[in-house]
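Minutes, methods subgroup
Present: GH (chair), OT, SY

1. OT presented the first of two proteins processed in the latest run. Sequence and structure tokens recorded below as shown on screen.
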Amino acid sequence: MKKIILIYIFHLFFQYSFAQSPDTSGISKAGIIVKDLRTSENLIGATVAIKGSSIGATADIDGKVLLKNVPKGEHILVISFIGYNTQEKKVFFPLTEDLIIFLESNNEELEEVVVSTTRISRNIERIPTRIEAISLEEIDEKANMRPNNVSMLLHESTGIQVQQTSYTSANQSIRIQGLDGKYTQILKDGLPTFGGFSSGLSLLDIPPLDLRQVEIIKGAASTLYGGGAIAGVVNFVSKEPKEKQELAAIINQTSTGGGTNLSTFLSKRNKKVGYTLLLSGSIQNPYDVDKDDFTEIPRSRDLNINPRFFFYINDKTKLIIGNSITFQNRFGGDTYVISGKADNNHTYFEKNNSVRNISNLQFSRQLSDKKQWVFKQSLSLFDRQIQIPDYSFRGVQTNAYTDFSYIINANKHALVIGANIIFDNFKEKQALKPRTEKNFITGVYAQNNWDITDKWLIEGGFRLDYTAKYGIFALPRVSALYKINEHLSSRLGGGLGYKLPTIFTEASETLAFQSVLPISTQAKAEQSYGSTFDVNYQHNVSENLSLTINQMFFITQINKPLILQNNSVGSFFFENAAKPVISKGFETNLRLTFANWIKLFAGYTFTDARATYKAGNQTVTLLPKNKLNMALLAEKHQQFKIGLEGYYSDRQVLSNGRLTQPYWEFGLFIEKTFGKISVFVNAENFTDTRQNRFEKVVFDAHNTPKFNEVYTHTEGRSFNGGIKLKL
């Protein structure tokens, strides 16, 4: 199996200087071939040197090393490669035939990154669509910071913004390329069960402990997943059981209100049956950092139970059945009300009580070595109630998703043909005039990955969706990958997208949907087109230093954007704007790895997103034009981890046109491993960056408060620590 360290082939580019020797009889035409011990693959770029001299060379594209000017006689070879244990071997020169040396991978190796979001489960370096993968190692690190949800995983990723939508309840949504959260499709194991009304608390309802990988597509991705994948797709991929039993547990305690999190993951399989089980719960006390009597972190109680069962019917047939249920109660607002001491001056509160249940089934059948079909079915129910003084909103959303796909892997083609049906129904409860939203969507799609040559790979797709209310949508998409040389590659992609009208947006979420009118019959679907272009460079600069640079440019235009307006009687309604929203910019990512245990990451995002329908300042609100994220990590496997992180956010435009303050935030984490047990400590935002240090956030009287828009941390610095167990 290829290792990720070999994703881009290293060429014979770097060599040691050669020693001069009076005896050239040791010149050998035979070479040394370096291979992986387990897979027998050639290790291109491996280094072979004569110990105690400056004679050495790196393996060429065939994994072969030719040493020149080696004196005749016995010498000690030093064979090394990043991700592998260095080996020394006595060899007599001149060589009479090729010598094969096998290196054993060490525990620092990075596993092959195989992505499933494009449905063909290919190595990431052979997919024309630009996909970012957050590995199990990174998930493990971020779980130390937020063990009960995935918000930290995305918050610290380049080009992604986690936007807080409520000051007192800390609800959040996700933005990609500066676009509203409704334009990002959130998947769990390829199933789109977090849309519409249920998207409001989605990031807070997904614990990270059972995740194997997170896959992110930025830009149009509607061919396989339909409406809503305009800004991108985030797919949370769960672990599957192995024959060796896995037990992982984490207990965490925070300084902000004394929150406690406990998560446990268990998995095991035999030849016929396997299972995974995730149990996660948290208790959070209310936290008022600035003592203004309003919570920055609400009182909350969360519980998630997620069992999955795997049936290996035979070598070619597999059935997966799972059910996830999440209970969440959040109580924010005036601390007097929360503690049961409400009076005439202390009356404000915000409650969020929700239940989310997702049942899913996946049945796959391998027809031959090159053909497979997959059937997926999910049924989700989301029941949420929001309460504030003198107002209560409760609704239930039911979503059913059915998908059938047929996959053909030929010599140079990987073809996916499929169809799906989506039924989505929202109904408001406990209202005199209940608001409803109902959509029934049928779609067919086809996608072909064509390996034209070793250097040129193309992915083309087309989707046709039919909706009873809004008509037919044709969604073509194409991507191309060009491997310029062993170190350099480039991707170009683009496609169309659409989003059906809904009242469930960030803007209406901040209003708790109060006085928001149902979607008008005159409303039309939003339609988009977008494109991304990137260049990726990866190289082993030396035996102990590797470098990766990625430069990506993007543009997305959304026509007929649905915007929230207010009328003369104080109600809010959605209507299509005449002019588009246009988001464009670029991302720069740099990664340096030294001696395989010291890593430096740096990411910069420039986003220029404009709502051209506005008469004045057209900049999209609550969006920093410039963002910088940096991280320095030192890690010795099964010993320790220590990391320092820093993030900069530029000024942001508020709805009233005012500019906010730019800010920095810093974090530090330490983890020490003792066999199967790890102890960790995390200092998040230890410089205490928070909005209420820049300006007043809560205005007017306590019983009729008004809140500024949230654009940065509200809770300030946070310390947490805990214990992890892995068996």
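2. SY then presented the second protein from the same run.
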Amino acid sequence: MVVLAASIISKSGKALVSRQFVDMSRIRIEGLLAAFPKLVGTGKQHTYIETENVRYVYQPIESLYLLLVTNKQSNILEDLETLRLLSKLVSSMLVPEYSLSLEEDGICRTAFELIFAFDEVISLGHKENVTVAQVKQYCEMESHEEKLHKLVLQSKINETKDVMKRKASEIDKSKIEKNRGDKGGFMSLQSMGSGRIDSGFSSDMSISSSGTGFGSGSGFGLSTDVDSFSTKPKGRPSASATAPPKGLGMQLGKSQKTNQFLESLKAEGEVILEDVRPSASQSRSAAPLPTDPITLTAEEKLNVTLKRDGGVSNFDVQGTLSLQILNQDDGLIQVQIETGGNPGILFKTHPNINKELFSNENILGLKDPNRPFPTGQAGDGVGLLKWRMQTVDESVVPLTINCWPSVSGKDTYVSIEYEASSMFDLQNVVISVPLPALREAPGVRQIDGEWRFDSRNSILEWSILLIDNSNRSGSMEFVVPPADTSVFFPISVRFTAASTFSDLKVLTILPIKGGPSPKFTQRTLLSTENYQVV
């Protein structure tokens, strides 16, 4: 790591803007920045100061300081070049664009813009090969997600306005219908000419001899107290014809313009997450996701202790095969399996399983064939078979770790490498290396994968998402202050794999009463329970 933080501070050491590129606590960075003005002398020409732990590279900007906090192993020429680029960037952003002075108020008002610009110049502590014009262009680029959000929001606002206008129109029409009913009754409707009243005619509007009023629900209509009549006068739609269905309120949707924009984005390969909420009736009628009625899980857990100078101190594999049945009708079954033929694995059946049937035919069935397996079991299901494997043969170890710490001068250099067996493809590999108590993250010089510094527990985590034939070996190197070599042990490892040492496979499910074999799913998992290098 080179640049630890980039900051703009006042002459008194007050932090106005600070961007950290390593895991540092707020107290730590504030302490470093507050100590800087006390170290700056007067009448000196150089623009860097070194302390016991860090180096300050700075440049005065009117009444402020533009400051880089680096480690002492960084290239000071590269740091000065980074400082000059940041200085040009700060000046070009504040003065011409925002018409702000390089004072405390101007810095605070553009704090976020400056932080974004710092991120474009420095990545993971190293300077990016960019210019001032490129950084300004990157910061001004439009956000695709923001544009889409604003478009959808404006569409909802427009839809809401349309609904409000329609509701207001419906209310006005209902008032007109009410006034006409109060004045004319039956005769006012008959006098319209072409209207016809029939007692058995289905209508758009009901008429009451005792007056009119609002109907129930969110739509508007006329209620009747005596008999139901109907009329369809020419040239004027009824109130209920334009009213919304009963029980429906305002609904917001996407306009045609928004839909076209979303479809164009989908055509370009963008993933669009739409807010789709099914109605209550649709939710009640939605069928659950299909699930096979029978699930068998073969799981192995590793307990391994490796020696730091080579060799195996402990290697123990414990496996289980469990059965989970959803429907009671599928309980009368037997399970036929196939093992990989590993001579070092010892199998042991559940006490209720027919041991002779398993020994002769590799079939797992209950001693009483008329007794079904339990159903509806939660969690891991019913255990059918267990097995165990113990050895000191280093060739069966799926992942070996070699750690080489060495002290040279004022630093301790640690080189770690892994070698994975070709038997397994390992997933989500995390190698945790304990460190001495550090105030800042170690300097990682080279790594195959990703790393993270857990400052609370003082642990360096080395992560590899997948180890397969393309990366059966890898290495990492980092630097810390002088420390005893025994501090870096024990190293803990965790990973998973989709295959097992037993290579157990479920061939088929045998119904005891005959008939077709029910569908089943087999899940296989290898995971670490305690895997260490001591």
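Chair's summary of item 2: DSSP finds ten helices and 23 strands in the chain.
Next meeting: continue with the remaining queue.
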